[in-house]
Amino acid sequence: xxxxxxxxxxGPAGAGKSTLAKEIAKKFGYLHLDSGALYxxxxxxxxxxxxxxxxxxxxxxxxxxxxxELQNGKVLLNGEDVTRxxxxxxxGKWASxxxxxxxxxxxxxxxxxxxxxxxKVVVDGRDAGSYIFPEAQLKIYLTASSQERAKRRLEELKRxxxxxxxxxxxxxxxxxxxxxxxRPFAPLKVPEGAVIIDSTGKTLEEVLQEVEKLxxxxx
Length: 219
Hints:
Blueprint: E1 6-10, H1 17-28, E2 31-34, H2 35-48, H3 56-65, E3 68-71, E4 74-77, E5 80-81, H4 89-98, H5 102-116, E6 121-125, H6 128-132, E7 138-143, H7 146-159, H8 166-181, E8 195-198, H9 204-215
Parallel strand pairs: 1-6, 1-7, 2-6, 7-8
Antiparallel strand pairs: 3-4, 4-5
C-alpha cells in the first residue's frame, strides 16, 4: 500500500499537533499546512484593523480581503512575515473567536485545499480530517490530558518569552476545548476512521514512531 498523500492530525489545543506535523513533513517529505495559523492570522489582521471580533460580517470581509501564504514554516500576511505576532496567547484567543464563523472557516478551507492540490501534505487542525480533508488516507486524532497540554503549552510560551502561570494556561486550554467542541459548525471531534493517539506521558519521538508505522502501513 503506497504512502498516504494526505495526512490529517486533529485534536484539542496544546496536544502537539503542529510539532508532530512539522516532524512528519521533515522526515517524510510532506508539505505542512497549519490551519490554526490561518485563523490566527485572520484574527491578528482584524485586530490590526480595529475590527470587533464579535462582528461576523466585518471579520468575514477581512478574511476575504487579505492574502495569507505559508512558506518554509513562516506565515506571510499580505507579504509581511507575521509568524511571531500570531504565536502569542492573545492570538490563540482571536483564532478561537474568528473560527466560530462558518463563512470564515470556508475561506480557510478553500485556501488549504488550494495549497494541497497535487502535493503530499500533512494538515493539522481541529477539523482537518472531519471537514477539510475527509478523503485523507491517514487520519490521526492526537490528544493528551488537559494538565499535560497546559504543561507543554506553558513551557512553549516561556521559551518564547511569555510569562504566564500554569493556572492561567490550564484555564485557557479548558475554555478553548469547550468552545471548539461546542462550535455549531465543524466542531472538534474524532474524524471517522481516525487513529487515536494519546500522547500523555509520551515523548515526541515515541509518538513519531507510532505515526511512522501508520504511514508505512506496518503492523
